[in-house]
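Suppose a colleague, Dr. K., hands you the sequence of a protein chain of 211 amino acids and asks what its three-dimensional shape might be. Before reaching for any lab equipment, you can write down a predicted structure in token form. Begin with the sequence itself:
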Amino acid sequence: MIFGMKPVSLIVMMAGVLCAAGIALAEDTRALSDGGRPGESLTVEQLVASVRNSRESTRSFEEAIYSSLLDKPLIVRGVLRFTPPSRLEKDVQEPYRERYLVEGDRVTFESERRHVTKTISLDDYPGLRGFVDAFRATLAGDVARLTQAYDTSLDGTRRKWTLWLYPRDQAGKSMVKSIELSGSEGRIDMITVYNPDGDRSVMTLSQERIP
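The predicted structure, expressed as tokens, is then:
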């Protein structure tokens, strides 16, 4: 476990903050670089291009965590922040206060309810590093690097698409079975992470900009 949590929980946090920058581009119709119409199909390359020009963004989220250890899903809410090139933050505000911060190769966890602050290095967690590097590659428009770490499957059109990511290496497979991103145009609306043991986490991202 990392920070006393199951790996999938931290992975969902990474997915949320790393994809938050892509949501900011949804308001810019130029995000899809080839100028296609909303009803047309698109490729992984075109989708990645839509989040290539990432910039500082802030988005609220609601996350439902489904676990065999829980009688019902745990619902948490908060704010995601991304500051290029590599500062990523998840600020959980309800029903408790927790903060996750990714800066370069360091991940810091702060919890008021647990009265703890811990920092780890991605060098100590190859599977997590591969995950972070792959999403950074997405934001940078580096499709080759993304597909080196994940097998991909893309379905739908520009108006409504779903992208599945499947880890290639064993370290990644031990942490996550698959990641499902769904959205419209250049906007990511939902991120679902499936754990190898059957647990999953579903994060819904707000379309509204936070001042």
